[in-house]
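Q: Predict the assembly, please.
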Amino acid sequence: MSDKKARVSLAGSQDVIELPVLEGTIGPDVIDVRSLVSKGVFTYDPGFMSTASTESSITYIDGDAGVLLHRGYPIDQLADHSDYLETCYLLLKGELPDAANKQAFTDEIKRHTMVDAQIAQLLNGFQRNAHPMAVLISLTGALAALYHDSLDVDDAEHRHLAAIRLIAKMPTLAAMIYKHSIGQPVMSPINSLTYAENFLHMMFGVPAEGPNVSSVLAKAVDVIFLLHADHEQNASTSTVRLAGSTGANPYACISSGIAALWGPAHGGANEAVLKMLNEIGDESRIEEFIAKAKDKDDPFRLMGFGHRVYKNFDPRSKVMRKICDEVLADLGVENDPLFRIARRLEKIALEDQYFIERKLYPNVDFYSGIILKAIGIPTSMFTVIFALGRTPGWISHWNEMLSGPYKIGRPRQLYRGSPKRDYPV
Ligand code: ACO
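A: Predicted assembly structure:
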């Protein structure tokens, strides 16, 4: 703790309340307001715009500088030199694995990729046109029903097993949900494939043929997962922490995180990008949509442009842009009308004064939406892919909270309802 103090005085009172100021490793100081409740006052901060809900050592973001670090490592370096499973290990354990630990972790994940046959029965109860996120929420929560023997959240071994199971089974669940939606048989995982290859095999393979996965697409999917692996205390991660603070089991907590991610303000943006590109429909209409985006009286915004936190650039979109070029070239679809519209929009945003002045560059969702579409993943599955990638982040935050002293999350409120009154008799 630093020697710095913040002083608060309330109008009409002589008392000055002295509050400690906490210093992070990097980033702004934080005023510790915990003692305020004992003085009879609360702070008011809907949306947590000025509130650190927790202390954490996992991820650091500096939106103004375009910095995203996992356990101190910059995201672009991880995307260039690491892979998704190694990044999962890093998030969970705090350090990069050596070669032996990486192999052991990969093997452990592979041992848990299969999903109990009863989960498939549950899946069959859903209509084929059910939204994949609704099904994923249910199947993830249902995993708790299978593992009664390892749900002690105070036991570090049980928590580790839950983390492995969730990371391992998420691609299998996602692919099962997709196969169910199109009426094809569910594909079993193949342990000789990498994590990303396995996912693509289970999504697009058929039992009548052996695995045939493009290495360019597998690399692209691995990077998409890696770039989504964690993003500090966002809405879904905070949801997982809040649920976990009650002692709820990990499958229920991750299921609640998936539910929060489903909201269009959080995980739904890449889906919105594709909807917008389809709505524009033709290159000749781009100017019309750009004019709408600039018009103060028109609520339309270019989906996939701008970011609440990253005001200079999103370090993930630089990586994603490169992968996007590689995927479109590998698939030979650069001249597909939809992708031509996307490229024109991107060019305009990088050159037009309106977008330059407001720092509205294409964000990570812009490129991931295009890549997923090019690979052949339906838009309704986009948020499922996000959930799959984010699973190690959620589980690392849950585990971090349970590894130390924690309190049940219980915000207070500013009551503005009726004062006490008597029931009319
Ligand atoms: N298209 C056109 N104009 C925009 C856009 C956009 N996508 N985004 C912001 N602006 C304009 C605003 O109209 C405003 O203009 P003004 O200063 O003349 O009034 C200015 O840029 C600043 O906008 P704010 O709304 O203050 O920016 P904020 O930080 O609140 O919003 C947000 C960020 C929500 C991401 C916004 O840029 C947006 O709606 N983008 C489109 C949706 C999207 O892609 N979301 C995904 C974000 S990435 C993620 O969540 C992983």
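The pocket of acetyl coenzyme *A is lined by residues 269, 293, 301-308, 358, 360, 363-365 (CB under 6 Å). The two ends are 58 Å apart (CA to CA).
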